[in-house]
Amino acid sequence: MAKTPVKTPAAAKPETPPAVDAAALDKRAAALDAREKDLGQREASLKSAADLQSKNFAAREQDLRDREVAAAATEKALKALKAREDALKAAEAGAPTPQPAVPVAPAAPAETVDPIDVEGTVKIAARRDGFRRGGLTYSKAPVEHPASAFSLEQLRHLMAEPMLAVDLIGEDLKKFVLGE
Known about the structure:
By secondary structure, this protein is of the alpha+beta class. Among the domains are: 35-98; 121-178, no CATH class. The chain has three helices and five strands. The chain has helices at 22-92, 152-160, 171-178; strands spanning 121-126, 131-133, 136-138, 143-146, 164-169. The strands form two sheets. It has a three-stranded antiparallel β-sheet with strand order 4-1-5. The radius of gyration is 49 Å and the shape is rod-shaped.
């Protein structure tokens, strides 16, 4: 029998790393740097967006509070207008004018003044309904009063009021009041 040579394992050769391509490594490092920079920009952008969203939220909350205050003021004004409208309708219908909820200081006591002792009529109309002067409420529709209901001083005050149209009816009354 022939002897076959026995092969002994050769000592394991350490594997050598493949050749490193410096250009490829530089390219990969640059790509990682670019990605890291991009992630930093995204993070800053998200933080900025969160800050902006927080500011927008605060501004919206303030806007809603402002709108609530304005709505309450508008509602109060509408109630006051409705009350005025109801009072004007009642006055036009001849019903007594309702008293305001807030007490009004009483008028100063009128001086004792002699009423006019001249024949005639005083026609008075307001430029807007519900105008008050001298303790009376006037409407746009002219209302006739006897001249004896007023003193000379009261008539002159009414005639000087730009919100009232005062017409003196009767020649004697005109001469007496206007001094003609």
